[in-house]
Amino acid sequence: MNPIPMTADLREAIGPGASEVENASLLLDKFVVPKQSTEWQGKLNHASRWSLLRTSRHGHQALASDLAKAKGNYLHSTVLSQIQSTKASIGLLQETRRRHTQTLMALVQKSYGHGACVLEGELKSRMAINLSDGVIENGGICLDRTFGQPFIPGSAVKGITRHAALAELHAAPDADKASLMERFCRVFGYTSDIFEKGGELAAWKHLNPKDMPADLQGAVTFLPAYSVGAAHLEVDITNVHTPVYYTGDNHNKAGDPRSLREENPRPNYFPVVAAGAKFGFCLVLNPVGQQRANSSELLSAARDWLIQALTVYGVGAKTGAGYGWFREVIDCSERIQRELEERQREEAKIAKEKAIKEEAARREQERLEKMDPIERATEEISALDDPTFADFGKELKEKSVEEQTAYLRLLQGTFKSKLKTWRKRKKAAILNPVEEVARTLNVELP
Prior knowledge:
By secondary structure, this protein is α+β, with helices and mostly antiparallel strands. 48% of the residues lie in helices and 10% in strands.
């Protein structure tokens, strides 16, 4: 029985339950366990839960527990045994994602310099991001397609930052609202309808600076936030305590208040990012922002609003219930700049040492080329250690005439003691070819 529809060759490569797939994004996009199939009789009411558990940290333990309880159910036992060993979110993918994120942050800082701001923050609670977008109803999550690791889209980063800015605008004293309004408009941009009736800033239309155009592009670009450390997935639940009230049944219509007296919890499962995950946030001044006279102030304002958004308002769904909140968010631009400068100095040092070695090698090559072939061979052979020198003698008949002559000259002079030792120990394997070559070249050995 095949719990997940797929072709035969693919099933052979990744297993009938896709247990060999390590990428959580691929598992949740393409290989979700269906609740019903033409291959079996019955319905898998826990299919969505199982699909989420196999991508989560410690999920295999829950699946193993379910498998132990399902021994009497052939359908459940077969499906669970095929998916419970899935290798999703293993360390290699997490480590590769971490390195890529750090490289991205460094490149942003290197490319934009003071026109960029790089932040790091750690989740102090679970985060539900992109919950409504997924194959499983209300079971989506933002995972990058390459590594299957969670990330926060740039649109979400900008959205929460904008929300924090609007909150500050609402709370600001009247005397500060005009300057704050202008800063808000220049950072995020706007279209004219934002000031019209029903628009977000309609109440403060009179504060819109007269010299600003009807439509304005924002000065700051908000990049997606990727994990800079281990970012594990977990499975959370919401409980519908009165499902009959909302859906109705054979006895009551949906919305009948009498149904509220009956408690029948029905858990809904959804994926979350575990607390403790660290993310890197990058803000950069785009070409519009770089042309502003007060560009550094705009970038600084965006940074402060983002920090406030992450630590005060949270990101993602269910923030009112405590999800998506970050601990202290640190501006690491200066640290990364120092690391870049240190890396550049180290690279310059390595490049200088390499150039010196290459120059020395070039000069050595020129020196060797100018030498007599026999002298060059003599120098090279004299640098050999004892075992290699002996092996060279065993193969002396296969060497060039220059090498043979150089070898014999060394035995006549510097290495005379080696020849004496070989004769004393009767090293025929070396002496025979050496003496034969000496006779051929008419060289008299000591």
